[in-house]
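In line with agreed milestones, the collection of sequences with tokenised folds has grown. One record among many is set out beneath this paragraph:
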Amino acid sequence: MKKNILIISGIAIATLAIAGFLYWKKSQVETEPAPTQSETAAKSVEETTRALEAITETPKVDAVLNPLEDQIPELNPVEKTNPFNVYQNPFE
């Protein structure tokens, strides 16, 4: 009976010692101060500006001239999707 009480007491003391040590180590760690609201806002504005600049940048296309025929290649194929410019209203 005394042996069981000693084992349980030893386990309880060891558990409390480990918990106390971990609490003490956690309190020793220095934390960084939280950024202020103005710093956070300035950072998000900078990120948004960089993202918008990246989106709005258009790649430059070098138009290569055909030296044999003196023609510039078609850069925007959407302009010539319909070669017929005639429109008839079907309800007239």
